Amino acid sequence: MVTDAVDQLHLRAWQAAARVPDPEVPCVTVEDLGILRWVRMEGGVAVAGVTPTYSGCPAVLAIELAIEAALREAGFEARIERVLSPPWTTDWISAEGREKLRAYGIAPPEGPAGKAALFDVPQVTCPRCGSKNTTRISEFGSTACKAQYQCRDCAEPFDYFKCI
Ligand SMILES: [Zn+2]
Prior knowledge:
- The chain has helices at 2-18, 30-33, 59-73, 95-104; strands at 36-42, 45-50, 77-82, 106-107, 134-138, 146-151, 157-161.
- It is α/β, with parallel strands linked by helices.
- The strands form 2 sheets. The chain has a 4-stranded mixed β-sheet. Strands 1-2-3 form a 3-stranded mixed β-sheet.
- The longest helix is centred in the N-terminal third of the chain and has 17 residues, at 2-18.
- Zinc ion binds next to loops.
């Protein structure tokens, strides 16, 4: 009975934290991106483990504050623990998260993480028409985490979530 109550509380804390949208890409949640690693209860305090995406990405602090706020709103005392190891890669983005990105008009990262390439320009699929005939317009899209591409077939400009 006691265990059940604890599990319930834990689940409620996880759900409150998991539905926090990414501040830069509000169509996906911190759970979709895989940056919310865990939530555990420590003596009544909900502690959320968060792995930053791109190091130096200014969104990291905003994400942590948003998760903390969501936990407080759900009635928890909250604390964030930054988890730096293992480092986040785009492989952690869930299949559902990738679908949401595509539906939002952002090409999800392609190719194995870690191979992203300084020299090599990845072949990116247009999120609108599915064509691979795309070209990079700019190394930086709406945020430093994304590059801007344009489709040669449907002429749609779009953001590509850089693979790391
Ligand atoms: Zn297209």
